[in-house]
Amino acid sequence: MYGIAKSILFLVGEEPVMVVTCGDVKVSQSRLKQHLGAGYLSTPASGVSRWFI
Questions:
Q1: Is the pTM higher than 0.70?
Q2: InterPro entries annotated for this entry (predicted)?
Q3: H or E element at residue 20
């Protein structure tokens, strides 16, 4: 069965990390930080297109 996917862009320092998951699944930022070994994650409010052009 197919569903809707969502993508969320996080910044780890200055490096972009894209997470793609099922649309009804919540991304645990604490688990993502632990998996990436990051101390801080942020979600950019603007300027996202600079990583995709």
A1: no
A2: YbaK/aa-tRNA-synt-asso_dom_sf (IPR036754)
A3: strand 15-22
